[in-house]
Amino acid sequence: MHTLEQLQAGELAGATRVKLSCGLTEVPSAIFDLAETLEILDLSGNHLTCLPNAFTRLQHLRIAFFSDNDFTVFPEALGKLPRLEMIGFKACKISHIAEDAIPPTTRWLILTNNQIAELPASIGKCARMQKLMLAGNKLKSLTPELASCQNLELFRISANQITHLPDWLLALPRLSWLAMSGNPCNPPVPTATELSEIPWQDLVLEEQLGEGASGIITRAHWQNQANSTQQVAVKVFKGEVTSDGLPEDEMQACLRAGAHPNLVQVLGKITQHPAQKQGLVLGLIPAGYRNLGGSPSFESCTRDVYAEGTVFTLEEAISISAGIASAAAHLHARGISHGDLYAHNTLVDATGHPLFGDFGAATVYNQDNTALASALERLEVRAFGCLLEELLDHLTPQDMAQERAQNLLLLKQDCMQPEVQNRPDFATIVEQIASNS
To answer: Of 70, 136, 80, 76, whose CA–CA distance to 104 is shortest?
Structure first.
């Protein structure tokens, strides 16, 4: 984090990155003195309502964040920046986007939690668009020009007012991570569950284990009905729209998912929370599990990143891919599209046993609509193909030369082929991996 005083005193001369959050109501003119070097600008958490015309001087700008500001209109100046690839306006008040305001160079656009009712037709010019995040707006339809965004891979449209899902969306050749819960086009599906209702007073909370966009996870002791004490993890939802969608949709998907050896276990639903918050009690993940990969970087955009030197054995790659494919087959058999099938949502132990979690982007869909069900599953199959590709990329050359690795490579190619309906379903994938073990 930088200070306004540093900027105005010239101490940031030559900087490629600047981050200012200090109650700004206008963009400081000293920013434009950095026009020859500035590539990343973060002005989130201020009170900005517009960008001055001088903003177009920032011709080297690649990444710009303006989240948690007071914009009501998407600034047209951004459309004149020739290198701008990543733009963030999460939790502003934007209701209007003019034609050509979104630069055609955009790869990653975050407009979560605004007031947008319509997208400009010019968004179809964004041929490089890979990641488009529109959850928590007022969209009633998707402009048909979006069909031209053939490189779109991750798409978040949950918690809008969309009444119809266009055919072209489910046919996009690279779409892999789709979240669309909380729309009229996908009405709630009743969830029958026999899970326990766990009173808040039966839980003794200990240290915080983690915090995500949708909630906080804490280690706890649960005094269960058998009058024995069990160590668990408690996830309490924040109740806010996240980049993926609504917390209540995440919770319903978790409950519907049920038990599977490769899913984080859901033990029950919290009741009687003192602040009336919703939450789940989860099985505590045993020691020794670690994240398979890291979340995408600015550069990788939609693909996970791995620590330098990461190597998987062929046996690990087969075990991980078999477990995740089995979990995904289980979910789709229950009408759940996970929406975020990624290495960073997968935990593995030393034996290569995977545990899959984080249902923040999940969509519970109507399985009676067989065309929709088939398309949603095969979109997710491409995400599995991406994961399989990453595992194969981290094998040793000796392992990669083995016949079983080459069989996985052929399976990966089948999963990632551009014709959505030509991809295998997860049940077929499970069989193919088993026959290759």
So the answer is: 80
Instruction: Output the pLDDT for position 361.
Output: 93
Q: Are residues 309 and 332 in the same domain?
A: yes
Element (H, E) at 222: strand 215-223
Q: Are residues 211 and 312 in the same domain?
A: no
State residue 268's pLDDT score.
87
In a domain, 303, yes or no: yes
Residues of the chain with pLDDT under 50: none
Is 421 within a domain? yes
Query: For 291, left (φ over 0), alpha (ψ -120 to 50), or beta?
Result: beta
Number of domains in the chain: 2
Residues 251 and 373 in one domain: no
Distance CA 11, CA 352 (A): 49
What distance in Å separates the CA atoms of residue 19 and residue 12, rounded to the nearest whole number?
11
In 3D space, the residue among 280, 281, 289 whose CA is nearest the CA of residue 262 turns out to be 289
d(CA 203, CA 232): 9
Q: Are 296 and 328 within one domain?
A: yes
Tokens of 385: 């193909």
Question: Cα-Cα-Cα-Cα dihedral of 349, 379, 128, 294, to 10°?
Answer: -10
| 343 and 361 both lie in a single domain | yes
pLDDT at 400 (0 to 100): 96
Q: Specify whether the CB–CB gap between 56 and 84 falls below 8 A.
A: no
Q: Is residue 44 part of a domain?
A: no
CB atoms within 10 A of CB 205: 12
Q: Which of 241, 267, 283 is the last residue of a domain?
A: 283
> Quick check: 8 and 32 in contact, CB under 8 A?
no
Q: Are residues 326 and 410 in the same domain?
A: yes
| Domain encompassing residue 256 | 196-283
**308 and 392 fall within a common domain:** yes
Q: What is the CATH number of the domain that holds 355?
A: 1.10.510.10
| Identity of the residue numbered 165 | L
Q: Tell how far CA 210 is from the center of its chain.
A: 17
User: Rounded to an integer, what distance in angstroms lies between the CA atom of residue 305 and that of residue 290?
Assistant: 14
At 78, is the secondary structure helix, strand, or coil?
A: helix
pLDDT, tens only, 226-262: 677 889 999 998 877 888 888 888 888 988 998 999 9
Residues 299 and 421 in one domain: yes
Q: Which pair of structure tokens corresponds to residue 350?
A: 């030393």
Length of the chain measured in residues: 437
Whose tokens are 């995904």? That residue is 328
Residue 210, classed as helix, strand or coil, is strand
Q: What is the pLDDT of residue 38?
A: 98
**What distance in Å separates the CA atoms of residue 257 and residue 357, rounded to the nearest whole number?**
11
